[in-house]
Design brief:
Number of helices: 7
Structural class: mainly alpha
Distance between the termini: 22 Å
Strand content: under 5%
Length: about 220
């Protein structure tokens, strides 16, 4: 019994240190991607614009948010405190959504566009995968409430509302000066709203999956 307890303690310590290292990497990746993004001049193709205009993309906003949450987690850890796990889940599911949409839909649909170059290499691939792994192994002392998965979908909901309001107020526009930079309304508003709903559900689904994996690893049922 004593040997089993010692093994559990060692495993816990390893996961704590692994989380620390992964959070440091997340912050470093966010800074790296941001610097590249600000220096790169894009024309909107490959979901990359110039400088701060990239902040219109959910990809960029979610990755910046994830980097900030990772930095706050490290500060809290240094002070002997804990950041609310709902913030970690929200950040991880948001970047996981970005990874999934690009890997499963956009990249196969638009093979001529390199969606993994410059800052997007970090924001579409490296940082999201790191954040997902970090959350799954994150040490938690109690079961993560299911309601946190609902909260985690709020960024996608709020972004979609802002996206639609901007189009309704300023018009859809024409390429390259379009306010529908994701092309959600290429098939009309009903299809666009359906796409938006699917994206919110995907965000929620990623949060549900990561919560389940975290609870399993922490042996919490």
């Amino acid at each position: 019994m004593k040997h089993t307890d010692e093994q559990a303690a060692v495993s816990k310590d390893r996961r704590i240190w692994s989380s620390r290292m992964l959070n440091i990497l997340i912050v470093a990746f966010a800074v790296t991607g941001t610097v590249i993004m600000l220096r790169h001049k894009g024309d909107g193709e490959g979901l990359a614009s110039s400088g701060i205009s990239n902040l219109k993309y959910f990809t960029v906003l979610s990755n910046e948010f994830c980097g900030i949450i990772a930095a706050l987690w490290l500060v809290c850890d240094l002070l002997g405190k804990k950041l609310p796990v709902v913030l970690k889940l929200t950040a991880a599911s948001a970047v996981a959504l970005t990874f999934l949409i690009v890997a499963a839909f956009l990249a196969p649909m638009y093979p001529d566009l390199n969606l993994y170059e410059n800052a997007n290499l970090w924001f579409h691939l490296i940082l999201p995968l790191t954040a997902v792994i970090e959350f799954v192994i994150l040490r938690t002392d109690k079961k993560i409430p299911f309601k946190f998965t609902v909260v985690s979908a709020l960024p996608a909901v709020l972004y979609g509302i802002g996206y639609l309001v901007n189009i309704l107020v300023n018009g859809k526009g024409e390429w390259p000066d379009t306010n529908d930079w994701y092309g959600f309304l290429n098939w009309g508003y009903p299809v666009g709203m359906a796409i938006f709903a699917c994206i919110v559900l995907m965000d929620f689904a990623m949060a549900v999956l990561m919560r389940a994996l975290n609870n399993r690893i922490n042996k919490i049922s």
